[in-house]
């Protein structure tokens, strides 16, 4: 089922998500619906809070070199914790909750995380480049942070001015 993606400036996006405790059929259904929603919206990542579920769950599905996303590449990441980070990378980021806006954001180029899969199995993995960027972007959502919060003041003001021009109330 395709879910509604919450858009900025909706205050639910500022919610700090809670740890997932039950790795049950409700979680599996949420993850499946999030995947269907993300693919429908042409996204590469989606956090549960973006579909109004304040749970520490996120998906990432990076396209391959041919530009296609394959379900076998899907990462379902529950209760992630960054263990290590290094390097810097600047990436032009966008967000399903901030449609039509892209901006260069500086992130760590390498991150190592611990997390759980949909069955509750403990996992540990290293990410680099685009995968690391997408992971950090989605993990920010779990903490009520959006990529626009990382913009320098002048770019943030420009973004807010553009929103107001298009009839959005900025909070």
Automatic annotation (TrEMBL):
Reaction(s) this enzyme catalyzes, per UniProt: N-terminal N-formyl-L-methionyl-[peptide] + H2O = N-terminal L-methionyl-[peptide] + formate
Note on how the cofactor is bound: Binds 1 Fe(2+) ion.
CDD domains xref list: Pep_deformylase
Keyword Coiled coil: no
HAMAP family, per database record: Pep_deformylase
PANTHER family documented for this protein: PEPTIDE DEFORMYLASE
NCBIfam families named in the record: pept_deformyl, PRK00150.1-3
UniProt name for this protein: Peptide deformylase
Organism listed in the record: Helicobacter saguini
